[in-house]
Amino acid sequence: MSSTNMLVDKFGRTVNYLRMSVTDRCDLRCVYCMAEEMTFLPRNQVLSLEELERLAAAFTRLGVRKLRLTGGEPLVRQGLVGLVAKLRQLPDLEELCLTTNGTRLEDCAAELKKAGLDRLNVSLDTLNADKFRELTRFGDVRKVLKGIVAAQKAGFKRIKINCVALKNRNADEVVSLVRYALDQGLDISFIEEMPLGKIDSHGRAAEFIASAELRKIISAYFPLVPSSSSSGGPARYWMSPGFDSRIGFISPHSNNFCASCNRVRLTATGRLLLCLGQEYSTDLRAVLREFPNDEARLEEVIVASMALKPKEHSFDITTDEPQIVRFMNTTGG
Ligand code: SAM
Ligand code: SF4
User: Fold this and answer.
1) Is pLDDT above 80 for 29?
2) CATH 3.20.20.70 fits 17-221+249-331, yes or no
3) Residue 101 C-alpha to ligand 2 middle, in angstroms?
4) Which residue, 31, 87, 121, 332, has most beta carbons within 10 Å?
5) Quick check: CB of 251 below 6 Å from ligand 1?
């Protein structure tokens, strides 16, 4: 077992975090993430649970210490709890996390905790039932709220809410969301929308609202003090005196964070994406399937892929043309 991290890119950045999309399917259709009509991948193109496990093992041997399961909606993938239990046994893995829309959390939070999941992020863009249905096209916010309660009861600590902020669709909800997070002892992060995939529900440029503007809105109700704490990711955190919650802002447009990028992503089809906002990638599924017993070759290909990691994303929020044609659900957000 190698104790040194083998995953270093040509800019000297060490990659120790892998986000794995376990499915492109989802039970919601969030307006910023998917088109209303989606064609999902045939199942044989999606990595099997065994293939996901094999890849996770290879990445941890090479130095990855944090894994996040995402999608699509990871909790619609059959066998997900079993996968969590298997991944938890990887000897070098320090943190196993999951990002979910929360719709199925009420049923499986306790099982996930028991299987060894360390951390949960739950996406929630509004507390208003009508607005939630509008933004997800048919979701029921009550299910998500019950799911969060179930996760807290199951013993998950520092659950984080993720909210994609859209100027004319939910920016008026940010104060209610912050109040909810503070009251419930949850962390919360606001994300600037990224132009992934072509959507027709709104113009991305028209909906852009910078993190600094959100902070101004929130500060009128809850004073914000910058926090030095970090989750090792792109979020910059603030705290409100008297509360324990961290209030984060992920600002790909207004505050580029690429210089400290430590992550890569695996799509549901096994494409290793070196950057969310660029197309440089390696087809790991081909290696897995062509060489089912050759771990050394798999590791070599992963190490070599690091040379493809670009310096930074190339998102441009001033145009409505998607610079990246793949949707977030295939990418593994
Ligand atoms: N279905 C799960 C969920 O919604 O949490 C996991 C997958 S989802 C693609 C992961 C995260 O990406 C969610 O927090 C979602 O809000 C965010 N997301 C999706 N599309 C986005 C976009 N175009 N820009 C920024 N964030 C986006
Ligand atoms: Fe599904 Fe998550 Fe995309 Fe919403 S953001 S459509 S819940 S994958």
Assistant:
1) yes
2) yes
3) 7
4) 332
5) no
